[in-house]
Specification:
The chain is α/β, with parallel strands linked by helices and 293 residues long. It has 8 helices and 11 strands.
Length: 293
């Protein structure tokens, strides 16, 4: 195959992703001749589709995202000096592809790049709200990035000089609302467990594996994590209401119309409130055990 100028190896994780991963792969094919898919034993035609698009596919049982991503970093036969990690429902815009090419990675003084992600909900890009646009460290020199040890909302952690690219990929949330709420129900288990684990670590000063640390003066990702830490310092349940006010009114989620109303409401009062309810449920169960003693 042609030796692509950017010199990037691309890694995707998949599981029953046939409906979306073709769009993802096609959006990055102009950046790489070395695309790898780590598949968690899909039961649909994901593997066949990826191979037909020229990808190297390996299959491995899924434990959690951090474990799967770091296994890929450590074990895939990555050919290039740079690697980029992409989700199976994401799509790179032409503007982002152009920005990556313009970065001239072969001569770049940077060791990693942060770029943005926008959500596509009910077929349209959400331009406002608390997570209308988020930033992710996804492109880095081999040896300069790993996925942090978190159960949910994992970011890659970089070592070395990091540069921000002012361009965005698209996160297509194509699932029906029934599927969306079912997924977020599962993810709320992980987020509640992560919140409880983080609280225990602060109390005991245990050193977790490398994670993105909150830093109000750090990178855009570290600043976002600082905001999240502030969120979890607020009272249980009240913070879900505060999140809705912040997302829908202060961050102008209402300007996305009915889509914005639905998304902000579900993100606040389905997902965030449900996380708090599960934290409370766990705390009650522990108190009952102590009371029984």
């Amino acid at each position: 195959m042609k030796n692509f100028d950017p010199g990037i190896s691309i890694v995707l994780l998949s599981f029953n992703s046939v409906a979306t991963i073709g769009r993802t792969i096609r959006s990055v094919q102009s950046l790489s001749d070395d695309i790898h898919v780590v598949d968690s034993y899909s039961k649909d035609d994901t593997v066949e589709l990826c191979r037909s698009l020229g990808c190297n596919v390996v299959q491995r049982a899924f434990s959690n995202y951090a474990d799967q991503r770091n296994w890929a970093i450590d074990n895939l036969p990555i050919r290039h000096d740079w690697q980029m990690h992409v989700d199976a429902d994401e799509e790179f815009t032409p503007e982002l592809v152009s920005a990556i090419r313009a970065a001239d990675l072969n001569n770049s003084p940077a060791d990693g790049y942060i770029f943005g992600r926008k959500i596509v909900f009910f077929g349209k890009v959400l331009r406002h709200g608390a997570i209308g646009s988020t930033w992710h460290y996804r492109l880095f020199r081999t040896g300069y990035g790993r996925c942090e040890d978190r159960l949910y909302d994992q970011h890659f952690v970089g070592t070395g000089r990091t540069v921000k690219l002012p361009a965005f990929m698209l996160d297509h949330q194509d699932a029906t609302l029934s599927e969306w709420t079912a997924r977020h129900n599962r993810w709320s288990d992980m987020e509640a467990a992560e919140a409880l684990r983080s609280a225990r670590a602060e109390e005991t000063s245990d050193d977790l594996q490398r994670v993105v640390r909150p830093n109000a003066r750090g990178t855009v990702i570290e600043r976002k994590r600082a905001v999240k830490a502030k969120y979890y310092s607020l009272p249980l349940f009240a913070r879900a209401f505060a999140y809705f006010i912040y997302s829908y009114f202060i961050k102008l989620g209402f300007m996305d119309g009915r889509r914005g109303l639905i998304f902000c409401t579900l993100q606040s009062f389905w997902f965030r409130f449900l996380v708090d309810a599960k934290i409370y449920e766990t705390q009650l169960a522990k108190h009952e055990v102590h009371d029984a003693r």
